[in-house]
Amino acid sequence: MRLQKFLARAGVASRRGSEDLMTAGRVAVNGVVTSELGAKVDPATDTVTVDGREVRPDEGAAYFALNKPAGYVTTMSDPQGRPTVADLMPADAPAGLFPVGRLDLDTTGLLLLTSDGELGHRLLHPRHHVWKTYRAEVDGEPSDADLRALADGIELDDGSTAPARAHLVWSEGSRAEVELSLREGRKRQVKRMLSAVGHPVRALHRIAFGPVELGDLAPGATRPLTDAEVAALHAEAGED
After folding, report:
1. 139 and 197 in a common domain
2. Apex CA 216: angle with CA 214 and CA 217, to 5°?
3. Contact 57, 227 (CB under 8 A)
4. Is 78 a catalytic residue?
5. Mean per-residue pLDDT for 148-153?
6. CATH number of the domain enclosing 150
7. CATH number of domain containing 86
8. How many CB atoms lie within 10 A of CB 234?
9. What domain count does the chain have?
10. What is the distance, to the nearest Å, from the Cα of residue 235 to the centroid of all Cα atoms in its chain?
């Protein structure tokens, strides 16, 4: 990431104001004064100071992972009074958080929430094609041909899906689990794709969004993203 962009995102100054700080010799990276406007930093590993005070990446924004349970609407408020993902956030969570994309009411798993509007928009923009990975319990056992069709693209009522990744996790004859990774975000896409190959979804769970993995986060629990995860998300969104 360009140093002036890092400084602007950390809330030190505007992009232009950050450049002025650099040319004035007030910014150091890992203890070395850095005035070159083309200089880049790794937010996950480099230490940046302004007038000797360390600034942290993304100080002005918040980033959380939530393991969404079934029965919660992916919105911060609901006029119908249904439970929302906002109800699961810590009481001291900062204002301005919003979910990055949506999970259906009955879909569980990883949901990202942030107050970084620019990043949220870029992560969902079709131009950046960020991978999202799901585990789906389905009726029946998908054949190799079914999995190839899912990977190559399925014809849906709103057009063919883009190439995906699909493999069988386990099967027990009458049901199975499929892992499916997509770079699109159409409405109910995973369910529609699996139904199209004859294997309706019984339960759907998202385990990864780009470089961020759900891991062992408990249902209904949240955690702040690490600096490394935030930096990786910015890279996935095509930001330098």
Report:
1. yes
2. 70
3. yes
4. no
5. 97
6. 3.30.70.1560
7. 3.30.70.580
8. 23
9. 3
10. 12
Full domain range(s) for residue 46: 3-55
Q: Are residues 174 and 219 in the same domain?
A: no
Domain boundary among 32, 55, 78: 55
215 and 123 in a common domain? yes
pTM of the predicted protein model: 0.76
pLDDT in tens, 160-212: 999 999 999 999 989 999 999 999 989 999 999 999 999 999 999 999 999 99
Determine the Cα–Cα distance for residues 115 and 94; give it in Å rounded to an integer: 8
> Of 61, 2, 232, 240, nearest to 130 (Cα)?
232
CA distances from 204 to 85, 176, 216 (A): 17, 12, 17
Burial profile 143-163: b = 16 or more Cβ within 10 angstroms, e = fewer: eeebbebbbeebeeeeeebee
**34-80 pLDDT tens trace:** 999 889 998 878 999 998 988 876 556 889 999 999 999 999 989 89
Tokens of 204: 């759907």
In terms of domains, do 156 and 38 share one?
Answer: no
**Token digits for 35?**
């005035």
- Given the residues 104, 116, 146, 152, select the one marked as catalytic: 104
CA 223 – CA 10 distance, rounded (Å): 20
